[in-house]
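Hey team,

Sharing the DNA polymerase alpha subunit B run so nobody has to redo it. Sequence (645 residues) first:
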Amino acid sequence: MIKRKCFNVEEFGSHQSCLACACIYLLGQLGYLLGSAMAEEIGEEFKRSGFTFDEEEEILKRCVTFCVNYNLKPSDIVSSWEVYYLNRPLDGSVVELEQMDGFLQHLQNEQKETVIKGEPDLHVYSSKDVDVILNDENEDLNEDILKTPNGKSQSLHKERLDLTPYTNGGLFSSGKPSKHETPFGQRTEKFVVRFNINSMPDMVTAEKEDNSENDEDAIIKKVRPLQGCSLTVHGSGFGLEPNCRFMYDKDEDRFNALDNRIMRHAKALAASGLYEEAVDPTVASQRSMFAVGMIYCDGEGHLNDKSILLQSSIAHSGGQRVRLELQNLSQFSIFPGQVVGIEGHNPSGHCLIASKFVDSFPLSATIDPILPPAKKIALNHDVQPINQSSTPSELSMIIASGPYTTTDNLLFEPLTELLAYAKRKVPQLLILLGPFVDSEHSDIKRGTVEMSFEEIFKFEVLRRVQNYAEHMGPDARVLLMPSTRDANHDFVFPQPPFDIPSDLKLQAKIACCTMDILRHLSGEELSRNLTKGGTNDRLSTLASHILRQRSFYPLYPPAEGVPLDFSLAPQALDISVIPDILILPSDMKHFVKVISLGEGGSEEEQARCVCVNPGRLAKGEGGGTFVELNYFGRPDQINASVVSI
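Structure output:
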């Protein structure tokens, strides 16, 4: 038996042996060393993502605690911080200690969502449930709440076809009047502008005058003729038809689709005259070379400085990969699946050392004369006054992205109020992006509704939209685009479009994609910006990747849960020309930004695009945001507002 003086006589003096004391002390030291190593790794992950600290030691201690409590890896906690950072108006890239409490709440919400997704039968009770029980406003409602969640069945009667909004203390509902007012109906702030861009102030003044009309003027405005626009959805030629066969892609389909992307970029860069013909980057050479290939990660996890690989095309290198060294570059932003041009040298044949980085498709190049299906729409004014040829044409639109109902019910109150708002504003185009019947909704996941998903879509969504169109008249234009989260639609990406009547005239090119590519890219991007005056706008950088790569989903491998099918028209994801307006609905922070593309300094050498993330119309049990946009013929001539419903 080991006999040794206790490390802490007061605490362990009564022990017959000091072996237990030594073990406790050593375990404590081991925990301290492991915590220090984890803190160092977390700090490196933050700095690799471009973040710094105001009180580094204290912040890293908190982050270590978060990792231990929630079983997170250092890369996981940094990814969660990026989502938290991008969804809040935080200035700069400095992580501050006072932000940790809010970040902890964000982590707790993420853990709650994970638990609910893993156990769809689990119901997380809130104060709302207690209030309903205590108020005893409706005996039948109380009986339903007191039952187990599994036993509750929410009725959506087919007979409920009268969708005239019912007003109950500010509550818009499509069905029978309810004595219980939902959290959405109890909100105090309605249709508040959270952000706006006013490139045409004269038009804003006129709009304010319109908004100051009295009730009688508003009634006259409703019957005023709507200036129409024609709508063209380019969806033929790619085989994307409703009920098409999908998820039959083979390895050969995937390989060919990726190789074709590399070859298109290589040919376009060579045709621009700015770069040489691409060569094999795996061949050892002291001379400078130009290569085109796709970024890959060497192994599992996120990209880092030591895990970057470049795969060239079959024609240039037989599809071989070579390690890519970017240490000599002061600025870059990369992600797996990105097609880039690299100027550099490979003295050993094992590592391509880059001296120049090209990530943008030439503006003068086009991918295909046929526009992608369902992801690109074009619009044109039917009314063309002869005496207004010198004034810029205006295209007004409202853009919203689902979910269209709150998480506590399937009343579709946000959709009802959005359509009521659109009736007052009279936009030429209403763009509604899925999900409509959200597969993530708790009632949908538990299967506690009596109607099929198709019936919910028909009676709760389409009927409302049809009533809106009938109210607005024959010139009303509405675009509905599905999402992979729609329970009533094909779970495949790219998706077959809804069947919408089309015209053949063109005015403004609008590109849309309901897959959350911004969030997926944010978790995989590796960037560096050491140049003075360089932009630190992360959201603009993420959106610009879509345009520079000329693809709605340039990330490869795709994010977990994305049903990407390469056999189903991979060209449907191509962006043939730079659109005037690019709509990318995302769970990240809402925004409207004008993005410039091109390496030249003059306006003639650059292209501009209005990038829009309208946010989600419903968030939890409350309302979200949508975008109201007036386009005056050019991306730099817009009036746009992000409005909370």
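The longest strand covers residues 285-297.

Ping me if you want the raw files.
A.
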